[in-house]
Specification:
alpha+beta, 6 helices, 20% strand, single chain
Length: 213
C-alpha cells in the first residue's frame, strides 16, 4: 500500500509539472472509457439482454433466400400469409416492418418511427397494455376502423401521460387513426436499438408505408 501511495504521489507531481500532457492524457482516458461504455451498451442491447416478451428463448426469425444469393432476405406480406397458413412448426407467426410516417398532433406535425405489424403481434409476444388495449386480430379484418397503439415513451412525451388519450385521434399521412392503447414502458419493439413510437395494423400498410410490408 505504501508503494502504491508513493507511485500515485509521483504521478500527480509529474502531471502537475506537465499540464498540457495531463490534459491530453485525461481527455484520451475519458474518450476511451466513453467508447467502451458505448460498445458495451450496443453489445448488451444486441446480444446479452433478452427481449422483454413472454418466452423470449422460443422466438426465431424466419427469412427468405433472395434471388441475389442473400440467405437473410426479408419476406413480403403474401409470403407471410403463405408461411402462416402452411406452418406446422411454430405456435404462431407474426409479421412486422419499420415505417416512417408524418404524424399530425393538432398543430404539431412531425416524422415518427413506427412499425406496421400483423395484429396478432402483441398477443403472440404476451405484451399487456399499460393503458387501453393493444392491437388485436380483428384490427386486420377488411373494413376495420383505423387504429394505432402508442409506445409508452410517445404517450409520455406527446400527451403528458394523459390517461384520457384512449379514443383520441391523430393524423397519419392525412388519415385519422384512433388511439386504442399504450404499450408498457418495458416494451420497445422486437428489433434492438430501433424503438417504435407507434404500431399500426398491417391492414393499413399501404396508407402509412406505401412501399408495403
Amino acid at each position: 500500500m505504501d508503494s502504491l501511495i508513493k507511485d500515485v504521489r509521483y504521478a500527480v507531481r509529474w502531471l502537475a509539472r506537465s499540464p498540457g500532457f495531463a490534459a491530453v492524457a485525461i481527455l484520451s482516458l475519458g474518450l476511451g472509457v466513453g467508447v467502451n461504455v458505448a460498445m458495451f451498451s450496443l453489445v448488451d442491447a444486441l446480444l446479452l439482454r433478452p427481449l422483454p416478451v413472454a418466452s423470449p428463448d422460443t422466438l426465431v426469425d424466419v427469412f427468405t433466400s433472395g434471388g441475389d444469393g442473400d440467405t437473410h432476405a426479408t419476406n413480403s406480406y403474401p409470403d407471410y400469409l403463405d408461411l402462416k397458413a402452411r406452418n406446422t412448426v411454430f405456435t404462431d407467426m407474426i409479421g412486422y416492418s419499420p415505417m416512417f410516417a408524418a404524424v399530425s398532433l393538432g398543430d404539431r406535425p412531425r416524422l415518427v418511427l413506427g412499425q406496421v405489424v400483423t395484429s396478432n403481434h402483441f398477443q403472440m409476444l404476451g405484451i399487456q397494455p399499460a393503458l387501453g388495449r393493444l392491437l388485436v386480430p380483428d384490427d386486420d379484418v377488411a373494413g376495420a376502423e383505423r387504429v394505432v397503439a402508442l409506445s409508452h415513451r410517445m404517450w409520455m412525451r406527446e400527451f403528458g401521460g394523459d390517461p384520457g388519450v384512449v379514443g383520441k385521434s391523430l393524423q397519419l399521412r392525412g388519415q385519422a387513426y384512433t388511439i386504442v392503447g399504450v404499450a408498457p414502458a418495458s416494451f420497445a419493439g422486437v428489433v434492438p436499438l430501433l424503438t417504435p413510437e407507434m404500431w399500426v395494423p398491417v391492414a393499413h400498410a399501404d396508407e402509412v408505408e406505401p412501399a408495403g410490408i
